[in-house]
Amino acid sequence: MRQSKDKNKKKNIDKPGKFKSHKDLPPMAVSLLPTSINKTGCWRALTPVIDYDKCISCMLCWKFCPEICITPEDKPKIILEYCKGCGICAYECPKKAIQMKNK
Amino acid sequence: MKLTIPSEELLNSGNAACQGCGALLAMRYCLKALGEKTVIVVPAGCWTILSGAFPTSAFKIPMFHTAFETAASCACGVKAALRMQGKDDINVLAWAGDGGTFDIGIQALSGAAERNDDFIYICYDNEAYMNTGIQRSSSTPYGAATTTTPANMPKNTHKKDIVEIMIGHNMPYVATASVAYPEDFIRKIQYAKSIKGTKFIHIMAPCPPGWKYSSEKTIELGRLAVNSGIFPLYEFKEGRYIVRKIDNKIPVEKYLLLQGRFKHMSKELIGQIQSYVDRHLAILSAKEKMQF
Amino acid sequence: MKLVITGNHAAAYGAKLAKPEVISAYPITPQTEIVEKLAVMVADNEFKSEFIKVESEHSAMAACIGAEAAGSRAFTATSSQGLALMHEMLHWAANARLPIVMVNVNRAMAPPWTIWADQTDSLAQRDTGWLQFYCENNQEILDTVIQAYKISEAVSLPSMILLDAFFLSHTSEPVEIPDQELVDKFLPKFNPEYKLDINSPKAFGGLVTQEWYYELRYKIQQSMQESKKLICDVGQEYRRAFGRGYGLIEEYGTANADILIVTSGSMVATTKDVIDEVGKKRKLGLVKIRSFRPFPNEEIKRVAKGVKKLIVIDRNISFGNEGIFFTETKAALAGLKNRPEVYGFVAGLGGREVTDEDILKIVDIVSSGEAEEFNWFGLK
């Protein structure tokens, strides 16, 4: 909310979100990065695996994935970086084309 | 492949939601329905954490954290400001949990609804104060075990009927929606977006740790809740009730016993709940037939 | 244009001239005329604003917060119980760095029920991060509302403008209403760098751990400190534009004074009469504290040099300690060598009148050596 006075001050940071001192901080807590820097895939206990022979591209897995980590394409892919292994995709798949496996 | 819901994603992955979180899925659908010309106001609740710790954001739209009980009042201020700036086409969304809606937030919500301020209020209902560790709220169903109503002294009052309370405010649109029925969910939000005034949508958001079920059953529980009549899908618009018919009604027991929070329930109590649900469905059906 | 108007109406005119785009308020005696006047001005199209008639003061502040977050100037007004109800959101407004301006009519806290003047309501909010300006008369109320927007928007912290219930809120005095054009020149449109903007989406207020919360708080303190000079600069700029200047404090008859009365609010006007009458004779002067937050530590140190006694008169009390201006004045002088003696008097709680005779009696109690360090004046 500061009127353009400190646009000229150079911020002493290597990349956004990596602060060194209070001088680098914005005046209030405001986001500078997306949460996608957090790779929540490490939370998984079980990993979904798609059997493309059974898959009919109905896209129910994409539709019901809370983490938005299934791609909307004819052969949907699981983005393992983010998949938390909830198992909804496997449970909802009408052809049982997805199995939750120990990986 | 055919997509039955919009493909655009306005949420980022990598948030702190539990595996299988219904509230996360609800937000995903809601933002698909509203599009990027949307500003969201979020009070304390699970979504405080899901929205990302500083300096990250789970959203691709502007978002403001506000105090627990102020989702509706803060959203009114945002909308008034945007309208004064000539930006009336921007959707303003207040997104609160059941605690912030049924309990501490009900005053601000009622005030806003009575004024018919122009914004959409969505309550994502996981039926307890989940963010603080599963304490009961006035939305917790009869007989449920929570940390403040343990299994040997479970909640002994029925869930507050927030939808009927809101219908009593002369609002242009009140509806219920479920993450198990995304097309219906999105249709309702898109309708709300198209009209002026205060719109209230009550969403059931199943919660694996709070309801104590295995995370892959989130959608299944949503379906069972709707088809047992525990969470009927209906709308109130233009003075009429529009109730989604349940084709194959299932007994409430099938829904209740999938969840650890109900496993202590006696057959007698389950019977009472079945009667309560049947009566509620009959009243809804009668209301649908009434012409106002 | 000069009008004879009450303090409440002066506040309303000040707000109107600042052109807030959103007003959101809830009625409480004795603030009601502020919002009624503004509602009529909006209805009569005297200026364009959205007036949200909220269902409580807590919601009033929440709506102002939403409006400012979205980039619009916002205004509200309240008093005592209403201010207390807003407490949580006062913290929120300051911590979110939103330059809301609010007028609070200083009214005593209940129970028992009361509607009369007392500063405890606003002083109980001193730690929330709001700037606080205590007004002496109705002209100052109007002038300070306008200046407060300029100051607040520069430092990104909210301001509250205080006026005593009934003594100012309901008493008519002549007030010069500045021209809108001149005010527009003095106070440019609100244009925040950070706001809710679909073209540059950001999330405000997310979780902060021990890693950076401390530094974010330091930044608020820094801005408060910066505001000290700004309050004086803006006060001087206001003098150049409108002929009336303001600062953090005001010294009245302090040259050659041995005893200084330190006070705030409507008691300042009464004390000025006393100084006019007997100031020279009794070597008595007045220091008006206008800005309570930020507290004018340096100014208090400066005026206290060479003075024998300070008498601080508080229309408030912090139970378990003393009058609040008294405590803070003493603290400001703590590091000074050769400090004057400082005496504190609580007077006028619950709207009891503090007349010019009362003020002289207080001075006499001190001069006669009968005063304790901290005293309750006129206790029955």
Offer a few descriptive terms.
heterotrimer, B: 292 residues, alpha/beta, Rossmann fold, 8-stranded mixed beta sheet, 11 helices, 9 strands, C: 380 residues, 7-stranded mixed beta sheet, 6-stranded mixed beta sheet, 13 helices, 42% helix, 19% strand, globular
Write up this protein.
The complex is a heterotrimer of chains A (103), B (292) and C (380). Chain A is mostly loops. Chain A has a domain of 67 residues: 2-Layer Sandwich (Alpha-Beta Plaits), CATH 3.30.70. Helix content of chain A is 10%, strand content 10%. A two-stranded antiparallel ribbon of chain A has the order 2-3. The longest helix of chain A is centred in the middle third of the chain and has 5 residues. Chain A is elongated. Chain B has a single domain, classed as 3-Layer(aba) Sandwich (Rossmann fold). Helices cover 37% and strands 15% of the residues of chain B. Chain B has an eight-stranded mixed β-sheet, with helices on both faces. In chain B, helix 3 runs parallel beside helix 5. Chain B starts with 21 loop residues before the first helix and ends with a helix. The mean pLDDT of chain B is 97. Chain C has 380 residues and is of the alpha/beta class. Helix content of chain C is 42%, strand content 19%. Chain C contains 13 helices and 16 strands. In chain C, helix 1 packs parallel to helix 7, helix 7 packs across helix 9 and helix 11 crosses helix 12. The longest helix of chain C has 30 residues. The radius of gyration of chain C is 20 Å and the shape is globular. Chain C starts with a strand and ends with a strand. In chain C, 56% of the residues are buried. The model of chain C has no long low-confidence stretch (mean pLDDT 97). Chains B and C meet through strand 1, strand 2, strand 3, helix 3 and helix 5 of B and helix 3, helix 5 and strand 9 of C.
What layout of secondary structure does this protein have?
The complex is a heterotrimer of chains A (103), B (292) and C (380).
Chain A: E1 33-34, E2 47-50, H1 60-64, H2 88-92, E3 98-101
Antiparallel strand pairs in A: 2-3
Chain B: H1 22-34, E1 38-42, H2 46-50, E2 56-57, E3 63-65, H3 71-84, E4 91-97, H4 99-103, H5 106-115, E5 119-125, H6 162-167, E6 173-178, H7 182-194, E7 198-204, H8 208-211, H9 218-227, E8 234-237, E9 240-243, H10 252-256, H11 267-289
Parallel strand pairs in B: 1-3, 1-4, 4-5, 5-7, 6-7
Antiparallel strand pairs in B: 6-8, 8-9
Chain C: E1 2-6, H1 7-18, E2 22-24, H2 32-43, E3 50-52, H3 57-69, E4 74-79, H4 80-85, H5 87-95, E5 101-106, H6 120-123, E6 131-134, H7 138-155, E7 159-164, E8 172-176, H8 180-186, E9 203-204, H9 213-242, E10 249-252, E11 259-263, H10 266-282, E12 284-289, E13 291-293, H11 297-304, E14 309-314, H12 324-333, E15 341-346, H13 356-367, E16 374-376
Parallel strand pairs in C: 2-3, 2-4, 4-5, 5-7, 6-7, 11-12, 11-14, 14-15, 15-16
Antiparallel strand pairs in C: 1-8, 6-13, 10-12
